[in-house]
Amino acid sequence: MPIEIITADITRLNVDAIVNAANGSLLGGGGVDGAIHRAAGPALLQACRELPQVSPGVRCPTGEARITPGFRLPARYVIHTVGPVWRDGHSGEPELLARCYRRSMSLAFEHGVDAIAFPAISCGVYGYPPEQAAPVALRSLRDALAMGPPPHVLLCCFDEAMAAIWRHALNDAA
Ligand code: AR6
Fold first, then answer.
1. What pLDDT, in 10s, does the model give residues 110-145?
2. Is 172 considered catalytic here?
């Protein structure tokens, strides 16, 4: 599988596209979203503002994805996706999480991206247990990689403990 687990600050990566774990407004927030907006500069917020609202205040519903330039980031594109908030695991969370990865990969294919880095979507503020998120994400990525000439996929964890969970899931999936 051309999927690599790394530990890094995603805003520093020299890849074609990085994925943002955003909220539906796409107007920024904490966690990786805040870090990406800080690193990209105010033009990113402006580009997000210009994306159409699909319902009041919502530019990207949960499970969907939108693309903008990366502005001051090393990455050419930011793909913004909105993961599910964890409730109990039986409220559609796995399907929505899988869709985030799939839709982000579709945009990557459409834009000819060679290398894309994902954060652990929903595994922070949104509370998705990483042990459960990782296999869902990896299955979805593996299915998406079959859609075209496979880009290099990096799963960018913020710390080693998170990376260990993802590596374990990747080994189980091999
Ligand atoms: N590089 C890589 N990973 C990071 C970075 C970074 N610079 N910073 C944090 N992480 P979260 P969510 C990891 O909370 O759970 C925002 O406020 C972090 O350790 O950023 O999808 C949005 O606006 C965790 O493992 O995203 C939404 O309101 C992972 O990224 C909400 O949070 C995801 O954590 C989305 O929550």
1. 999 999 999 999 999 999 999 999 999 999 999 999
2. no
